[in-house]
Amino acid sequence: MGSNDTETEQSRATAVLDPRGTVNAASDPIADRLGSLAGATVGLLDNSKANADVLLAEIGRLLESEYGVAETLSRRKDKSPIPADSIATQLHQRCDAVVNAYGDCGSCTSWCVYDSVHLERAGTPTATVNSDEFVTLGQSEARSLGLPGLPLVTVPHPMGGVPKAEVRERAREVLPEIVAVLTRDRDALEADYENRYLDADDAVDTSTLRCPI
Amino acid sequence: MEFTSERIDIAADDVEAVTDQLYRAGMTDGLPVVPPTPERVERMLAGSHREPDEALGVVPPKYGEATVETVAINAVLAGCRPAYMPVIEAAVEAMTDESFNLYGVNATTHPVAPLLVLNGPIVDELNVNYGYNAFGQGWRANATIGRAVRLLLVNVGGGVPGEMDRATHGHPGKYSYCVAENERASPWEPLHVRRGFDADESTVTVLGADAPHEINDHVHGDAAGVLGVAADVFATVGNNNTHHSGGEIALVLGPEHAETVAGDGWTVEDVQWYLYDQARNTVADLRAAGVYDNYTLHRRFRLEESSDARIPLVERPQDVVVFVAGGAGKHSLALHSFGETRSVTRSIDGGDGE
């Protein structure tokens, strides 16, 4: 066996091929934001998840009463795990900005983020709502779709089954951030949001939902 | 040969070290893997009829590029034979067809996995199990083709559990979910022929399916009897097909049930119509299950004011996918789906001396 020792030493290290392939997403900036919401028309994109209508109605009401929004336009997707397509196009054509709610599960987050990327690429500033549990998925998807700076604002998870009064309270809590996302300087927003959730340093305890590898 | 894929250095040249390192990097399904060394990947590529850099599709939600080379690397990991390559390639093409909605399927909280159903000469060529325990363990082709597809969804698609795969529970078919139709025991034309392919063509059909649900009927000797039980199994509340209208359900008939149904003179179209008509829930039952507003509201329910109205699981009879699989025994399987997904059938190249 002695004569094989050297060969054994050399063969200890090895290389295998990476099974992950490559991602070829081009990165685009988010849309220019509005200077102010005064006199603006704001679209409310409801993806039909439970309580999204309640959340958006309250956001719309407050945008008009407190921020001078002239008009809101509500549109609802038939179902959440599909793209908004023509609805998004319509909101882009008729609105100055859009609030899109929300991603609080896997497939609905996918298509919620997709719709926002669609709107942002078309030039419509969009505030995208994800539940805090799903926002890392949303941010991963924004990166994969080539819009890493997409501003995602969070509401507590879950949203389904929550009493309407509490949903309205959450709308009031998230409203200042939504307004900021639609009106702040674009570059500052991107800098603020592109690593906000996935690379957050603050340790989140995921042990109740996920066993470490 | 030259590879475009990156290399990963492994400290020791053994299966355990490779498995451990790739496992910790989230690149496996938790089972031991065959190390994808350049030599093994080259041998795997010999089973393909395409160039290594050919793009087969972009796999969401990460939107990684699935090339033939990437498929080969994952096929090595899964323990495939080179001859399986064309099947996996066709499955990737089918899954990345827009109508399959892989962007939803691979990220969703719903328990869903792409089920591969193989038809044509390739089934015998590769010994893909269509008989006893077709959905279970024991056949290398079924086990490793399905596994390679899962590894691609993880590695290229980013479907790492808890990251971009957010399945609340998942289901056991996410390790591997690949069967063949039992064309020999089917009284009807095979699935792929009904979908416009030639009988001597080989195909893979992918369906975004739940775990199978048992349909046990040892009693009925008539089509409506057997299918009445099947309809009851399908028509439960709590599955996505109750309220998502864009999807399909699949009935996997065991050969004995298929013989009973066909023996009554029923065609596949009759079976589809029967389940469309009978696999329904009343509006009252759906309302009681929370299917009435918001997330679950759908035009079907707006049309129906009556609590007694019965809502089908699918929009059209042809959305009931029917095929025959399994060995002897009076069992069939009900497969609900993700709800917003369409099954896609693709030709497998090289299936029969092509």
Highlighted features:
heterodimer, A: 213 residues, alpha/beta, five-stranded parallel sheet, 7 helices, disordered N terminus, B: 354 residues, alpha+beta, four-stranded mixed sheet
Topology:
The complex is a heterodimer of chains A (213) and B (354).
Chain A: H1 5-10, E1 14-17, E2 22-23, E3 41-46, H2 52-67, E4 71-76, H3 86-94, E5 97-103, H4 106-122, E6 126-131, H5 135-144, E7 152-155, H6 164-183, H7 186-193
Parallel strand pairs in A: 3-4, 3-5, 5-6, 6-7
Helix pairs in contact in A: 2-6, 3-4, 4-5
Chain B: E1 7-10, H1 15-24, H2 38-45, E2 55-59, E3 64-67, H3 68-78, H4 85-95, H5 102-105, E4 113-119, H6 122-125, H7 140-155, E5 178-180, H8 191-194, E6 203-209, E7 213-216, H9 223-234, E8 249-253, H10 255-263, H11 268-278, E9 280-282, H12 283-288, H13 299-303, E10 310-312, E11 320-324, E12 331-335, E13 344-347
Helix pairs in contact in B: 2-3, 3-7, 4-7, 9-10, 9-11
Detailed description of the structure:
Chain A is of the alpha/beta class and 213 residues long. Chain A is built from seven helices and seven strands. A five-stranded parallel sheet of chain A has the order 4-3-5-6-7, sandwiched between helices. The relative contact order of chain A is 0.16. The model of chain A is unreliable at 1-7 (pLDDT under 50). Chain B is an alpha+beta fold and 354 residues long. Chain B is built from 13 helices and 13 strands. The radius of gyration of chain B is 21 Å and the shape is globular. The chains are: A alpha/beta (213), B alpha+beta (354). Strand 2 of chain A pairs antiparallel with strand 3 (64-67) of chain B, so a sheet runs across the interface.
